[in-house]
Amino acid sequence: MSESADSLQALQERIMELEIKASYTEDLLEQLNMTIYRQQEQIGALINELRELKRQTPDGGAGGPRNLRDELPPHY
């Protein structure tokens, strides 16, 4: 093989390696996007659940000062 044929072969191999890396990168990006999407859905559900819990509390979720003795179990 001549020097230009070797050079062409090396260039083709390099292009193939870059195409493979680009393909893996695209797959990883898609996986990360799906992970972010699912996490955003979970965050939204948790926010809604927190709102519902605050709505159910007698004081409307206002976190006023509390006496920790009121929270002791009855056996104390």
From TrEMBL:
Residues 54-76 are annotated as: Disordered. Gene3D superfamilies: 1.20.5.300. Residues 67-76 have a biased composition (Basic and acidic residues). InterPro entries: SlyX (IPR007236). PANTHER family: PROTEIN SLYX. This is SlyX family protein. It comes from Comamonas resistens. The lineage of its organism: Bacteria, Pseudomonadati, Pseudomonadota, Betaproteobacteria, Burkholderiales.
